[in-house]
Amino acid sequence: MLLAAVPGLLAQTDVVAPAPTPITAQPTADEGMPVAVAATPQPHHFHFPWDRPQPAAESAPAVAQQGADRGVALRNGDTVDIRIANVPPDDMQQIDGSYTLDEAGMINLPYIGMVKAGGLPPSQVQVTIENKLVSAGIYTSPTITVNPPANMRFISVGGAVRAPGRVPYTSDLTLMTTINAAGGASDFAGDKIKMIRGGKIIWFSRKALDKDPSLDPRIEPGDQIEIKESAW
Predict the structure, then answer these.
(1) What's residue 207's pLDDT?
(2) Contact present, 157 and 164 (Cβ < 8 Å)
(3) Is residue 172 part of a domain?
């Protein structure tokens, strides 16, 4: 008897269906004539896609942080980790390692010498290194990965805040969210916020930023923030 499959009632397990029973011939002892003997049925296993093991996914915070770090421009004095693939194993050992940007923002690599990295995001430095290796005729299709160290960027927050110190940089930080990450303004905080970026001082008003959040500026790695105390 045939059973019709009911949609939605299939269990997520293997479905075993009997294979056709082949018939083999064996001679009898008394007549010497072949007699049909049924062979032992062998099951066939059908696997549904949902039965297959799925690869583990990276956590969302880890992926987000990695993407943020790789989009930040490198600065003089930064130390980056450089890896190469699609080359002979011996050459990988020659190139793989940590490199520090000098005062001119350059890194010194085997085979190709000095490469400009300061002021560029890691993704652009990767392409520059790959192109130099190919144009010099050293490799045909190298793959370079440039990774800044984890938590290499911080923002310094001080003045009239509840928890002054360094706040790890992420790409979504603004001036006010950075202050909040430092515990928020203290009871003695005034209206003026001083931010130092690249040696330049920029002043902001807390009242203005609270009134219009669209004025809240994005923070860059290395920024220094200080809330001035109230005059009274």
Answers:
(1) 95
(2) yes
(3) yes
